Each structure stands twice: as C-alpha cells, then as structure tokens.
Amino acid sequence: MTERLNTTSATAESAVFTPGGEFYVQVSAADPLTTFSVIARVDGNADWVEVDTLTITRPIANFSALPFVKIAVKNNLNQATAKAWSNP
Predict the structure, then answer these.
(1) In whole angstroms, what is the distance from residue 69 CA to residue 37 CA?
(2) DSSP letter at 77?
(3) What is the per-residue pLDDT for 12?
(4) Which of 15, 40, 45, 68 is the most buried (most CB within 10 A)?
(5) What pLDDT, in 10s, does the model give residues 19-51?
(6) In terms of C-beta density within 10 A (0-12 exposed, 13-18 middle, 19 or more buried), how is residue 50 classed?
(7) What angle is formed at CA 88 by the lines to CA 54 and CA 9, rounded to 5 degrees?
(8) Strand pairing of 23-29 and 60-63?
(9) What percent of the chain has pLDDT over 90?
(10) Secondary structure (3-state) at 66
C-alpha cells in the first residue's frame, strides 16, 4: 500500500492521487477522536466532495474508481500520529 498521509497536525490533507480502478483506504490514528475524510471529484473543474469518513473504529473502506482523490485528517486535537494508505 502507498502511504498517502503521515502527520501530527490537527488538520492536514494528502496530495491528490489517481487510483487506476477500485481502491482501498486504510487509516490509523493514536487519538480516538481523529477522523479521516476521503474526498474526490470526477473532473478537474468539479468541486471536491466528501465520499466517506473513516475512523479508528472503521479503519478500512473500498471505493469504486474515482479519477481524483485526496485524504484529509481532522480532529487530531492531541496532534498524535495519524496515517492513511491506499492501494494503489
């Protein structure tokens, strides 16, 4: 899996990536209140929309093909390590 996000910031956002088809996202956070938003858009000119939210109690999800994706971490108030991966 490719690491998309590794931060200790209260909020942060990954770089945009383009999965080649169906993909999975897995997250990990030391702070149980930390949330991760999977954000996507179908065109370079379209608005970004949140397609799912992951937490340490629901750390893995799979998604249909989306051309533009990024992962945002929120509520990492203790500024503990928060990580997200995807395949591909």
Answers:
(1) 10
(2) T
(3) 98
(4) 40
(5) 989 999 999 999 999 999 999 999 999 999 999
(6) exposed
(7) 45
(8) antiparallel
(9) 98
(10) coil
